[in-house]
Amino acid sequence: MTETNDKWLVVVNPMASVGKSGKDWPLIKQMLINEGIVFDDILTEYPRHAIEIVRNAIVEKGYRKFISVGGDGTNNEVINGIFTQDVVPTTEITMAALPIGTGNDWRRTFDIPLEYDEVAKIIKEGHTYAHDIGKLTYYDNGDTRIRYFLNAAGTGLDEMVCHSTNRMKQQGKGGTVRYLISLVKCVLTYKVTRIQLTIDDELVFDDYILNLSIGNGRFNGGGMMTMPNAIPNDGFLDVTVIKKVSIFKFAANVKNVYDGSFINKIDEVKTFRGKKIHIVSIPPHSLKVETEGENLNNSPFDFEVLPKAINMVIPKDRGQKPQKKKKRRFKKK
Question: Residue 3: what pLDDT?
């Protein structure tokens, strides 16, 4: 077995936030050095490159500590590199995230700052949180595929907006305003789809949906609090379903999506919680899914939670709120 490497490996996505990550990396690197953090670094060169980098780093070079520099998509690739190797248990691996990307939804649950020097100090402190991981099984041209995620996944309108936003990013256009433009366009053109939602072997929903969000974190879609009751280490995935709703009603409640209050203000919203989630679309294969900004292929979908599967570095004083106990296995509104 390869000897363990005690250094951090910093994986930098230079294209995150329309190139801001690459531009700011020299400054960030110096801040990590100033904190006395011992590390090696490598820049990704193409989509999914971080998966290869991290998997190889664990298997062949003995790294056990990783810093993701970029956005939620970069975090997702690092996670998939960690969880697609079988040399070392994932519970023996530590990951930190230095947020630069467009969405930065994972960091919002723990209120991780955006200031680089503050995050460097947090990494130096090294306080870790045993974090759940989501596992998704989906279909790609008839073949089953597996994808892991740290924060959240979505289907329906969410996936459509993600696809539109990614096209804008490819054209060098990013940011919150662009995301909202994509959201408005997609709301006007999206066609609702019927799904059957089974949670822990119980059919809990059979109806048409506008959107479905699922995950460990509270935020998705660039700051929307789509799962306001989610706790990242409770061993459950939270699910928020928005049924068919008028465009006017949806538009009138957009601000409530950002503070999470929409789950109590819109009758068409249903919330659930469980360990295993199965989603079938009618007609079959008519839905696609996104995990932390990456568009993946079609339904049916199977989600599973991997409890406390990785050690995430978070601020020492920010881990208590997400650990608040929940009383019910899942909640149906």
Answer: 92
